[in-house]
């Protein structure tokens, strides 16, 4: 199986944990492919753990816009995403989350898998905060 497509199912949530040293465009492609796979497999909630990705700096505003657009296209309005990232990669104003909403992609960004799973489980049960 293509490592870019391997993910684990945790409480009905597709969890993707890519590990690679690569440029940002390759990381974005890997994640878009995984989102497409999760969507086509019928998963509606997905957590993407990016902490295993290295080889690029914190994305610029334009790069964030592009990566969110790509992921929204992959999700096709059918998958809700929670991205787990290192604190230094999370924009203080949550620009990516705001843009994702504009593209029709419900999304959230957090620093830990526990936070991400809690947020997604809340969506599954209707208990959002």
**Morphology call:** globular
- Ranges where pLDDT stays below 50 over 5 or more residues in a row are none
Number of helical elements: 4
**Structure summary, number of beta strands:** 7
CATH class: Alpha Beta
Instruction: Give the CATH superfamily.
Output: STAS domain
Overall residue-averaged pLDDT value: 93
Distance between the termini: 37 Å
Number of domains: 1
Write the CATH architecture name: 2-Layer Sandwich
Helix percent reads 40-55%
The proportion of residues in beta strands is 15-25%
Could you list some keywords that capture this structure?
Transcription Regulator spoIIAA; globular; alpha/beta; 129 residues; 4 helices
In brief:
This protein is an alpha/beta fold and 129 residues long. The protein has helices spanning 24-40, 61-75, 95-102, 113-125; strands spanning 8-10, 13-16, 20-21, 45-49, 53-54, 80-84, 107-110.
Can you characterise this structure?
This protein has 129 residues and is α/β, with parallel strands linked by helices. It has one domain: STAS domain (Transcription Regulator spoIIAA, 2-Layer Sandwich), CATH 3.30.750. The chain is 41% helix and 19% strand. It contains 4 helices and 7 strands; from the N terminus they run E-E-E-H-E-E-H-E-H-E-H. Helix 3 links the parallel strand 6 and strand 7 (107-110). It starts with 7 loop residues before the first strand and ends with a helix. The model has no long low-confidence stretch (mean pLDDT 93).
């Amino acid at each position: 199986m293509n490592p870019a497509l391997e993910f684990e199912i945790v409480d009905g949530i597709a969890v993707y944990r890519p590990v690679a040293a690569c440029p940002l465009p390759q990381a974005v492609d890997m994640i878009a492919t995984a989102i497409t796979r999760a969507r086509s497999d019928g998963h509606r909630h997905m957590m993407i753990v990016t902490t295993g990705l290295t080889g690029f700096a914190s994305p610029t505003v334009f790069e964030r816009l592009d990566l969110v657009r790509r992921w929204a296209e992959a999700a096709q309005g059918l998958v809700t995403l929670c991205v787990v990232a290192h604190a230094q990669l999370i924009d203080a104003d949550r620009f990516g989350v705001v843009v994702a909403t504009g593209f029709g992609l419900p999304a959230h960004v957090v620093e830990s898998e526990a936070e991400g799973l809690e947020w997604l489980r809340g969506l599954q049960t209707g208990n959002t905060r």
